[in-house]
Amino acid sequence: MPVERASTVVFDDLDSFERRVDRLYDGFSYGLYGTPTSRQLEDHIAALEGGSRALVVPSGMAAITLTTMAVCHGGDRVLIPETFYGPAREMAARLLAPLGIDTVTYDPKLDGRLSALIDGRTQLVWVESPGSATFEVQDVPAITAAAHEAGALVAVDNTWASHLLFKPLKHGVDISMQALSKHAGGHGDLLMGSVAVNDDTLFRRLKDTARFLGYGVSPEDCALCERGLMTMPVRMRQADSTAQNIISWLSERPEVAQILHPSEPDHPGHSTWKRDFAGSAGVFSFVLQPELAPHQSEALRRMRLFRLGASWGGVHSLISVSDPRKGRSGLDWLKPGPVWRLSIGLEAVGDLLADLSQAFEHFAETRRTTVGDAKAAE
Ligand SMILES: *Cc1c(COP(=O)(O)O)cnc(C)c1O
User: Fold this and answer.
1) Which of 85, 177, 210, 230 is the most exposed, having the fewest neighbouring CB atoms within 10 Å of its CB?
2) pLDDT at 372
3) Poorest-confidence range of 243-247, 304-308, 328-332?
4) Atom of ligand 1 minimally distant from the CA of 193
5) Res 8 pLDDT > 80
6) Which residue has the CA at smallest separation from atom 6 of ligand 1?
7) Model pLDDT for residues 112-159, shown as the tens digit of each residue
8) Which residue's alpha carbon is nearest to atom 8 within ligand 1?
9) Which branch of life, at top level (predicted)?
């Protein structure tokens, strides 16, 4: 893919210069509003998403803020799931609230019952399925039907599944958003986000909002993202296959209280996942036995291949530790204990299992010490 850099675009004559705003959505008038390189990536993403138009922006977070601000204005209401990407929940409280945009946070298990929360002011319903950290799968068609009946638009953060495993626009969703920083970038070194739609008016609203916010993307980054898209199906399949092996191993371990992955038969939304998704990504969580909480940091320190990091979708495996219980209700299905999220990379499965195994050995040692101490006390 040729990389064409530009801030300035030059025009052949005064007439075309004066009519340059006509080129805002489809042609080229200024580097910030699109280059041949960014347009090519956008056209590619629109096709992959099954949409008519797509827009690329500097990050996944930029895509969430852009979508919300393009649709909602002062006095409006937006619904977000409790599992929504953490920084976006903070954005709602600290950027949207002062602008008079009111946020209602809902239990991701509500599905069609969400209609009770949609009032005349509600312009937008956000869905993130599966949700961050705990991976509940939401019933997108039911939510979309409820929102549309009340005149609200639906946007899906589809970062986990990506266009390869779930196509929100095909399920009637209005806006499909992805953090391309994850699976598409795929190497832990790229930041980008996308929004795809099937409606030209909505596209223009998004494009205008991106222009007002001054969002632009580097053509080098677009070319890297394009390269990532080419290997993404193979990488995602490989990571998922390794993840399945790691899940089998974890399921047998006494240290593990619960696996949080849509393919678990008792996981919230499991049947919806089977109905709507074409597979799973190599990103999931598990709950450690609560008594292991004080020993986590030493076990994590012993990891060699799994590094501590908050992102995911790259070639290197990562662990992220969070407390998903903060600010949430409806988590009675979640067992107590620390939650570790794994992002499975492209390392050999045997090496990853050996790494987990030697780090978990620390848990076994602490248990032997505890049992030994108890025996000594007797
Ligand atoms: C990472 C992530 C984002 C934000 O993407 P950035 O490009 O890092 O800003 C949004 N949603 C989800 C689900 C994510 O995992």
Assistant:
1) 230
2) 66
3) 328-332
4) 7
5) yes
6) 60
7) 999 999 999 999 999 999 999 999 999 999 999 999 999 999 999 999
8) 60
9) Bacteria
User: Best mutation site among 64, 82, 83, 85 for ligand 1, i.e. most ligand atoms within 8 A of its Cβ?
Assistant: 85
Q: Which residues contact 16 (CB under 8 A, 6 or more apart)?
A: none
- Rounded Cα gap, residues 105 and 126, in angstroms: 10
CA of 83 to the centre of ligand 1 (A): 13
Cα 83 to Cα 129: distance, rounded to the nearest angstrom: 9
Q: What's the sign of the alpha-carbon dihedral 263, 114, 173, 154?
A: negative
**The sheet that has 283-288: what strands, in order across it?**
256-260, 283-288, 339-343, 318-322, 307-308
Look at the pTM and tell me if it is higher than 0.70: yes
Six-digit token string for 87: 């920084």
78 bridge partner residues: 103, 124
Looking from the CA of residue 64, the nearest atom of ligand 1 is 10
Q: What is the pLDDT of residues 78-100, one digit of tens each?
A: 999 999 999 999 999 999 999 99
Q: Please, what are the domains in the chain?
A: 14-226 (3.40.640.10), 233-377 (3.90.1150.10)
Give the nearest ligand 1 atom to 313 CA.
15
As a whole number of angstroms, the distance between CA 92 and CA 291 comes to 35
Q: Is the CB of 313 under 6 A from ligand 1?
A: no
Pairing of strands 283-288, 256-260: antiparallel
Residues with Cβ < 8 Å from 212, sequence gap 6 or more? none
Name the packing angle between helices 60-71 and 200-213 (round to 10°).
Answer: 110
Tokens 């649709």 sit on residue: 71
Residue 373 has pLDDT above 70, yes or no: no
Longest dimension (CA), the chain: 95
Instruction: Compute the average pLDDT of residues 271-287.
Output: 98
What 3-state class would DSSP assign to 12?
Answer: coil
Q: What is the pLDDT of residue 330?
A: 85
